[in-house]
Amino acid sequence: MFSAEQSCWFVRKVICWRAVASIAWAVLLLPPITAVFVILSRFSLLHPIQTVSECLTFLTSASVIFSFILLCGVIIMVGFLNLEYYTVIPTIACSKIALLGQLLHPRHFVNSLAHCIMGIIVAWCCAITIGGRYEAVAYPCTPGDGADSSHQMCLNEYHFILLLAGAFVGLSHSMLGVIYNMNYVPFHTVQQYKYLRFKGSLPMLVKCSATQALYSVRNYIVLYFFLGYIPKAWICKTLNLHLNSSVHPLDSIAGLLDLNLLYQLWVSAGFLLLTWHVTLLLFRIFVTEVYSFAVQSSFTEDAHQCLPKVLTGKQSMILKFLALQDLALLSQHSPLRRVEVFSLSQPGGHPHNWNAISKECLSLLSDLTQRLIAYHDTVATNGRAKSLSTGSERKTSSETSVTSGTDDLMSPRPTFLMKTPASVFARSIVGSPLTAPFTPDLDSPFASPALRRLTAPPDPFSPWSGTVQSPHIMRRVPKLWSTSTDSQVNGSPPASPASVPSPKQEQSKPSLLAQFLQNRKEQLPEASSQALFADSQAHIWALEGLSYLVQASFSEDQFGVVQTALPSILSCMLVLQEAVDRHFKLPHASSKPVRSASSLGDSTHKTLRFALRATLKTAIYRITTTFGNHLNAIQMSAEHRKRLQQFLENKE
Amino acid sequence: MCSLALFPAPLPAGQTTLCESNNELLSGGGSTEDRLKQESSPLSLYFPRESLKLHCRTESSSKAAFLDHSETLWMRSAAAWRDGGLTGLLDEITNSNTEVPKWLSVSSGFTLALIRWFSSFHGSLFPHLTMSSEDMLAEFSQVLNWSDCVVRAFAWHPHADKFALALLDDSIKIYNPKSATTPTLKHRLQKSVAAVQWKPLCASALAVACQNCLLVWHVDPCSLSTRPSSGCAQVLSQPGHSPVTSIAWSPSGSLLVSASPMDTAMMVWDVAAESCVPLQRVGGGGVTFLSWSPDGSHVLASTPSALFRVWETRMWTCERWPCVKGRCQSGCWSPDGSRLLFTVQGEMVIYALTFTDSPAGVPTCTTKGPQAAAVVADLSETTFNTPDGDIMVGGEIQSLAWDPTGERLAVLLKGDSQAADRPAVIAMFKTRTTPVFELLPCGFVQGEAGAEARLIQFHPNFQHGALLTVCWSSGRITHVPFYFLSTSVPHFGLGGSPSLPRPQERPADFNQSLFTELAS
């Protein structure tokens, strides 16, 4: 009923235009940023006024205009990459190995390469702008002692070091982007106009670009000091250039302690990062802008664009998120649209709008509940298995006694369940209920198109795919890469006794690498909890939307459409509340992540579970304070009633 | 316009106001019997000043006595940087001119002078920036004479019958008549508490405005612990955002705003995520007082200058309201959020602003407000002839409180701290919002002899009218009920609970404890 071209409707008509608008603004902002960069890079303390006038004449010269066009191209490219790689559900690596896997994934590799090349282009523009000794890649020189006067071209190392710095900063930007989830688009709880939001985050942006540039340049300098001779030799060979032995080489301590050089490197890196960060910020601001969906339409051809249809659709993640956001806002702020939600269909008198909305919200919430319960079960059994046997023995004991009982059947499960949601190496895991807790199912509403594209085909470049034959390694795959298992997907137990090498063999060969990797894997304990709640922004909106609608229904619902759903809403929330409470009793679940202030990578996804817990409690309280003792008339189980009573007495 | 001349004369000394019933304020004599009755109610508390263990810490004064001056220059510089920031470091370098090169000490001295000149220039624009943080808290607090007050902050829980209060010794106590335990909250960072507020739609979260940060305590109401550990507190801090003088939760419980006179940005916190969005407006030089309207649509933010803002919370845009005379000292919202009463420092009147709702459903850019505020009450000095002689009442206003039904308005008048016969006094008004806004005189609320009111707050859901809680300078906390039948069913917009059918008004029955009636 909801075909692909209709879903494209939103991406085509809204998201793409928003992205284009953000890129246009980024391009418009480029001239002032470039002007500031020109002034900063050419400023001399001794002749301030002369510098300014020089800069002004320089800014109108042909070379600058050419490099400016190049920079615009780079910005457009960055904006395009932002659109291509953005996601509303962060990818959380549960282990360092998984993170490494993400970094080396071809998709990200292409991204890094593109950033690297764009970094070089920007650095070239910077070199042109700075001028002086940075301007040209080669200069005529006399080789050797200068006795023979045959002129040769020598490599201008200042130019070269700047270009390489651009490549390095671009690469590290893209790497950090993966580590800090910079492609994650966070939604804000505080709604502001785009201009004010941009203005508000501009100081932070400048600060964070400057610091990141500083760190990048530091790392680059160290790297260049040790390994700088390799690219230098290569470029000399390729371009048939010579090294001027009379000039001091830059990959030495004396060469690198050139303050002007360091300053220019820093300013160029800061310029590069700032333009890219501005593009990213604008993209985020434009994409997350509230989109107001019609609750119902009088024309049937627009019916697929209405809120109830859009909410239940499973096509585009961003569409679903924006619809939920709109639902949360309309339930809170606009009585007129709430009336439409509570209204009955004209012939027939069915509350279709309310039914669709409440059903979708409830299914989202119960989905989360199921996920939490499954996670809790696996962790609980995992803990028991751990207490019985430790270290490498655990592997053998659990696998040798496969047939003994349910407990043992459970124990290998955590090893494949502990994986990142939409881990980059995940192969298609269709419909396996066991995988649900940790990987938002690829066919579920939570898989973004980017993600699906990412995971759909078995990755031919993955080092572990295809060629792996040995069951020994096969079994290690999930542990190493913390992804789904192939064996489990097929429904067979992980390893039948026949195919397992004998435990003795395994013990005699305690692969050091495997142990090392195993240790690495367990280093991010909080991450699995984060991964579990990675898409919880949707649940938060669903909770808010439902609770506000229920609250408003107390006075606005003329036909009593909400009343019928009240028992299921309450029980769904109470069950979720119990599951969330249980989850927060687990170790690491309630530990707060470190607040990283100076990074553009938004850390809101790390605290989503706390936000969800708070919102859930508030939502239940909102209903209980609105309805008060009327809730006693609702049919529900004794256990739920007891829990509800706690809320009615303000004791939760 | 209502003026104090219409008020009934204040009570003679020694009489205390007990309650309002049948449209008049009843008073009791200074007899011990009456006092006993009032004290027998479980929530009337008394904190004698002597019972509090006050720490006499002034870090600046003890520093000179303990600092080891034989440390190396590097160590001292690092310590100065840590303690005093850039100016401290420059000061240290300038002072130790025997150890550093001459050019360094001279240049740092020059920089220091430049910074001081600039900050004095800045300070002359905004004089409050030169104050110490304690003085600033005292100046901008809603509590009268904050630095000397035993109870520095007080907050009723919006749903349950419990309250939290912050004492002079920086501890916070939570009282609940239904529970035997009174948790005491102490935290390393909990210094100079300026305000406390419970999170709406939550049983446990209490936000505390401290000198250097915000704390959000999570006190489990079922826990039997009397000293919750400091692990129960979330610390929210932002560089440059201290001291925090005012906080306000959104009525939907999702956001918390905090204000500091030193920071031109008002912070909107997402408490669960511990992240904040600064809403920066440079004019005014800081934000001193915040008040969120009960329907959640507007926030009043006053600045240290003669300017205040009214933020609209949908898209967080603001209206500027310049005042003629002084800064906005206090303000309160009508229960439906459509009317704002505020007072201005240096003036003895109450102003009213009316906000009309924009057409529903249309995303509001800026709600079109009124063009000018109207004076609704004049509280200038008035002399009453009483048997004891002439009593002068009136003056500047410290704070305003409007009860949740919108029928009583309490105004705390500053009085004159120099003149002995002009203590702070609470003037009560009857208010009516429909069909037209009206203020009618009700009377003065007085405490026992020698006690001045310092802090007033209404109980958020008192069943039989309104309940005013007053913290006195003696350290006593009393509750004054106003029994009346609400003329209109209170409607809280989205934020509140619907009213239950009210029981028939009872005649004043003092033999019964007030709070037995509250127990639901």
How would you explain this protein's 3D organization?
The complex is a heterodimer of chains A (652) and B (520). Chain A is built from 27 helices and 2 strands. Chain A is an all-alpha fold. Chain A has a two-stranded antiparallel sheet with strand order 1-2. In chain A, helix 3 crosses helix 10, helix 5 runs antiparallel to helix 6 and helix 24 packs parallel to helix 26. The radius of gyration of chain A is 29 Å and the shape is elongated. Chain A starts with a helix and ends with a helix. The N terminus of chain A is likely disordered. Chain B has 520 residues and is α+β, with helices and mostly antiparallel strands. Chain B contains 6 helices and 33 strands. In chain B, strand 22 and strand 23 form a beta hairpin. The two termini of chain B are 39 Å apart. The C terminus of chain B is likely disordered. The interface between A and B is large, with 43 and 35 residues.
Strand order of the largest sheet of chain B: 1-24-23-22-21
Indicate the proportion of strand residues of chain B.
Answer: 25-35%
Give the oligomer, counting copies of the same chain as homo and different chains as hetero.
heterodimer
The total beta strand count of chain A reads 2
Strand order of the largest sheet of chain A: 1-2
Most residues in contact, chain pair and counts: A-B, 43 and 35 residues
Q: Structural class of the helix and strand makeup of chain B?
A: alpha+beta
User: What is the residue-mean pLDDT of chain A, rounded to a whole number?
Assistant: 78
